[in-house]
Every structure is written in C-alpha cells, then in structure tokens.
Design a protein that fits this description.
alpha+beta, 2 domains, two-stranded antiparallel sheet, 21% helix
Length: 196
C-alpha cells in the first residue's frame, strides 16, 4: 500500500464514507484532501494532522511501519488555562467539545529520571519524575527549551538551554542557581513531568 491508500483506509476505518465527508469534518478543503487521498500530492506536511484526526499511527500512515492503530493514544484538549493571561472559562468539562487533542508519546522511545536538588524549584522539586526522549539530540535542536543535558564531564541535568556567544559552549539556566556556561555532549528532549 502507498501512503494515499493508507489514508483512504484510515478514513474508512474512522467511518467517513466519502472523502468529502472527512474533509468537511476536518475543516480541510475537499480539493486538498482528495489530492492527498488520490495520491496526487504527498502526505509529508499533512500526515501528522490526518493521523491525529483518524486516530491512526503517523508512522503507519506515512511509512507503512507497524499497525494502523499502533500505540496511538490521545487526550482531548478542553481549552486553555490562565498563567497570566485571561482565558475563556471551561467550567465542567462534561458536555464540552474538545478543541483538539494531543497524542501521547510512544513509550518505547522514552525514559524516566528522578529530579535531585532544588535548582529548578518551583518548576521541579526534588523527587519529581521527568519523562524524556532517550534519543540523543544536538544541543542546537533544543535551544530555548527545557531539556536534559549531558556535559562532556558526564553530568546530567535538566536546564533551560541557551546559546553562548562562545563557540562550543552552551548556557544552562536554572530558577535558583546562577547560569552555567559548559561544553555539552548531548541533549535529550523533555517530554513531561509525572506526579509523585
């Protein structure tokens, strides 16, 4: 099967009888969606959106890897929450329509670490469990994000990663400690914090 064949199979499995029906439900132009389903256009840019909408594995949809459903699990996004901004009150979520959904990461590529120390309090406290992607990444891919960093000396920390004006060095920021300028071996994507 080609990607467009898998897209058609995903639509049918989601109980949309026609491409027009699926496009209308997604809010996508019919001409765009039908070009994807007919194989006139590739799925690389729209694949993730289609996979989320039809609740199928993105890897299966784009590459034919694994099963159609894979280990796809998602959580509905029920609105926003204020953190210094005014947002619409959602009240009781029962009976409210989701405004979208977020796909849970595949556990196969994840690891967990226990936070030790207080340099990131109150964001993380000693004993919190951090879930992270075990695939090493180039530090430059994680700039301006919280991530797990590993220094060339072997220290492993969770920090906000910033570029240093000095070649080969990176700035690590904490909430309760002065910034450090270090040479890094690798960085790992921070995924989420689990409740203790």
């Amino acid at each position: 099967m080609e990607p467009h064949d898998r897209l058609k199979a995903a639509r049918k499995a989601a109980n949309y009888a026609t491409a027009a029906e699926a496009a209308a439900a997604m809010g996508v132009a019919y001409s765009t969606y039908s070009a994807h389903e007919n194989g006139e256009k590739g799925l690389s840019r729209a694949g993730a959106r289609y996979a989320r909408f039809f609740h199928v594995s993105k890897a299966w949809l784009l590459d034919g890897t694994g099963d159609m459903r894979g280990d796809v699990r998602s959580i509905p996004i029920m609105g926003s929450v204020g953190a210094g901004a005014t947002v619409q009150q959602i009240g009781d979520t029962a009976g409210h329509d989701a405004v979208g959904e977020v796909e849970l990461p595949d556990a196969a590529g994840l690891g967990a670490l226990i936070v030790r120390g207080e340099s990131q309090w109150p964001k993380w406290i000693d004993g919190d469990v951090i879930i992270y992607g075990r695939e090493p990444r180039r530090p430059g891919d994680e700039v301006n994000r919280y991530c797990i960093v590993e220094t060339v000396e072997g220290e492993r920390m969770i920090k906000m990663l910033r570029r240093s004006p000095k070649p080969g060095l990176w700035i690590l920021e904490s909430h309760n400690a002065p910034p450090q300028e270090v040479e890094l071996q690798s960085a790992y994507r921070y995924v989420m914090t689990m409740a203790r």
